[in-house]
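Hi everyone,

Forwarding the result from last night's run.
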Amino acid sequence: MQPLIFRKGLDRRSEVAHVLEESYHSELIAQIKAADYRFESGRLCIHLAREFGFCYGVDRAVDYAYQARQRFNERTVYLTGEIIHNPHVNDQIRAQGIRFLSDPGSSIEALTADDVVILPAFGIPVELLERLSARGCTLVDTTCGSVLNVWKNVRRYAQDGFTSIIHGKYWHEETHATASQAHHAGGPYLVVLDRKEAQIACDYIRLGANRPGFMTQFERACSPGFDPDRDLGRIGCANQTTMLSSESLEIGEMFREAMLQRHGEDSLHDRYRAFDTICSATQDRQDAISALLAEQRLDLMLVLGGYNSSNTCNLARICAEKLPTYHIANPDRLLSSEQIRYKPIDTKHETVATGWLGEGPRSIGLTSGASTPDNLVEQVIRRLDVLANS
């Protein structure tokens, strides 16, 4: 018997709208948008990027979680893990009485047909969906439409005999899910993190050789039984939707050139495919921050969002190429006008910087990742106002 799966809401939107409004939205942010995305107070001028914060997919996922809690108020409701990569939002979800299967003491084997399980915005692997289905529990699927689009493409690659080359983080939940879609459809996959790893794969396509080194490099980032001599003969490019779009496009071109050099122009159509699978919200936020950096003279940039949020980290990476940038997880990282706790680009741990705000008039750029609600952006602005003008 197939489980009951909700994919288009649960008819409780109006009942949870006020809770979502109180928990995540901000009147101040609405006012700043109306004021040309600019906030001025004393010596402080804050410029908001014109696209930031919750995207449609995240907003929908959070909405469905609250609807599920409302509709199944006498049943136990679980999430497979974090619904999105934002600690504040996940804490709010827990406060609604929703449990996490990733918590100690919870297990899929203990689920029954009376339980409800919410699937996160970045999806879950096919194998996990099969295990949940076997338990007979009701499922609420919040998988983002942009992720579903990537899945459609990698399944098509597999069905047509192509290996999926996925630009992403092999340990990321979305990439796990995408890779499982390719594998389940009978296709190999290879996950490349960046240009450096893409270059290793492209060199193998051109020249072969050093098979042991290749397999060591990608031992955790390829499908079971992956054979580069066989599986790199026909490839299709895809990506984790939240990666840096310019890098994804460049990596796709690197693989195209490698296949062209190895097999020639006449064979390229039969050996190489690519689709732009960066989600529109990710692209919009990256474009907006690039525009802000080009249009305004800023002293520094603040990027707000979870440290394990790929799209937020990439926003910080774009900014750090231009000016001092501080990626903060929460407003409380603004310790004082002298100190800020933040995560530097491409590091795993926070550090504390001193003298970050500076003296005199300050022009500060501000953006937030697609999993960051407006109320947290408001808290950052109010905290900056206090620090700059006290």
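The mean pLDDT is 95.

Cheers,
N.
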